Amino acid sequence: MANISNLIEEFIRTLMGESDTINISRNELAQYFDCAPSQINYVLATRFSFDRGFLIESRRGGGGFITVIRVSPSGKELIKRLDEYTLSEGVTYQKALQIIKMLIDDDIINQKEAAIVKSAITDKALIVPTDCKEILRSNILKSILEGIFKEEN
């Protein structure tokens, strides 16, 4: 049986279709899937994050409606986000893969370039103490994006 988080994600993606924006009710979605509203929050936070090309706007009151927006962040926005990650916890390999997928989906890089970047940021390639890997990975991604988007800066 499919994981409920996967079902909710697929349902929201189907609702979106080709649209860049949808409004959904957290409570109605929770009722539909017979789950707690916190499960909907979890899916939105993990599967529809900025790193995956989405923004979530939550409206207070009004029945818990949420707006899911598909975005194509500019190079400056991505670099700024990587700066924030570098200053805090860094970037996990999974989060880096999400960023790379977004770059592929937005036709910024191709599959071959993505494979090269992925190879450069694996834990195996980053031979530093474990607590430094995610910050180093963030810096590498940031440097690559600065090279890609140098005309935007």
Q: Summary?
A:
The chain has seven helices and three strands; from the N terminus they run H-E-H-H-E-E-H-H-H-H.
Structure overview:
Helix 1 (4-16) packs across helix 3. With 153 residues, the protein is mainly α. It has seven helices and three strands, in the order H-E-H-H-E-E-H-H-H-H. Strands 1-3-2 form a three-stranded antiparallel β-sheet. A hairpin with a 6-residue loop joins strand 2 and strand 3 (65-70). It is 56% helix and 10% strand. The chain folds into two domains: 4-70, Phenylalanyl-tRNA Synthetase, Chain B, domain 1, CATH 3.30.56.130; 75-148. The protein is elongated and about 45 Å long. It has helices at residues 4-16, 26-32, 37-47, 75-87, 93-105, 111-120, 130-148; strands spanning 21-25, 54-58, 65-70.
- Gyration radius, rounded: 17 Å
Q: Count of helical segments? A: 7
* Global geometry: elongated
Helices and strands, in order, run as: HEHHEEHHHH
The helicity comes to: 55-70%
Widest beta sheet: strand line-up: 1-3-2
Element layout with pairings:
Elements: H1 4-16, E1 21-25, H2 26-32, H3 37-47, E2 54-58, E3 65-70, H4 75-87, H5 93-105, H6 111-120, H7 130-148
Antiparallel strand pairs: 1-3, 2-3
Helix pairs in contact: 1-3, 2-3, 4-7, 5-6
Characteristics:
153 residues; 3-stranded antiparallel sheet; Phenylalanyl-tRNA Synthetase, Chain B, domain 1; 10% strand; mainly alpha
